[in-house]
Amino acid sequence: MREGRAGSHARPGPNSMIELTRLNGKAFTLNALYIETVESFPDTTITLTTGTKLIVLESEDEVRQKVTAFYNNIQILSNPHLRGEKDEE
Question: What are the entry keywords (predicted)?
Fold first, then answer.
């Protein structure tokens, strides 16, 4: 079973990026705004808006959690419409 590196969480703050781990064990940071898709083939493959594909040790769920934390940190998810919520009348 693959597991991500311990302690690799989205950093707090408005300019934060997510920290991920390449298959060779080398850590890198990624601006989650450039992520188009995250899939498992079975390795977790991230496709960027540029078409670049990155393969990481973290599971698809771990990447999804980091992306959600990233969006919360930059307050994109503070808009109820972006969260999929409807206005209360």
Answer: Cell projection, Cilium, Flagellum
